[in-house]
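Risk register update: the risk of archive-format incompatibility is retired. Evidence:
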Amino acid sequence: MDPILDGLQSRAIRSDRVRNYSKILAFLALLACVGCKRGSKPEPWYVGQIRLSDTTLKDNPALDLDAEGLRQALLEAFVESQRFVALAEGKQPPSDREPLLCKLEVAFTREALGDEDDAIVKAEVGVTMELWKAGQFERWKATGMGRSTFNSTDPTERIPAFRRALAQALSQAIEGEEIQLASLAKSDEKLIADLASSDPRVRDFAVRALSERRSAQAVPALIERLSDPDREVALRAVGALGAIGDPRAVSALIEMTRNRDTQFLLTLVEVVASIGGPDAEGYLFTLSSGHPNESVRRAAQAAQRRMHERAAVDSPDKIPAFDEKPEE
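Archived output:
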């Protein structure tokens, strides 16, 4: 065999092997990169100054904790969450992150009898937490409630039971803060998907975020939440639809007023009027002229007037059709 040809073939084989080996390395590197992304943890939220409510410890002696003890319980709860990092005094987060300020209040400590055995007592603790950024008005609030039991015949079990309940309450409040803060970074599409979550807290915070963004694409999903089994979520959806101001929501809001108490009806009158449109006009006219409750009639008349005043400002060339005075 020609030695020159043999040498060329050998180099070609080695070159193919090198290229194949390089491809394999590149593929493995890509897999490793994907694996890192899948396994990577989200960026934590950093907590700086922690404030304890003045009345928290004085009004809740059942915990038998001083300020430092309560602070330590909160720090442990932050660590267990794996999403919050409490900064030591004088420490700062990475340059691109701004620390959150935190206020904690123990809202109550109470005892309740057990369901079956009178000797078993429930220790219940409720907490309220607020997080915010320095210089900003917006605050993110969350609550938590924990429960543990102890035997009333053994007094030494009482304080440990209340502290276990405190740990549960802190964990629940922190989880609520986590859900709320995470919702701020989600797209409208993800928030709309959250409206169908089985967790009412997720639905609640999704409604809040979509309301603040005035997301018109969320209107159909928010209308569905008017019948949410959680009353707080349903009421927040009412406010969100009013804030967005999309006329598509009016008929659903009107339907929601059926067989409701007067106070709820008065609230819906304001929301419907704030949205406006022909359906709102007809509904308010019907209430103002024929509802049996005088306070509802007056509220509908006043809402009509405000609605027409807004229309006059938006379209000054059009004269409002409603110029009647409220009933005396």
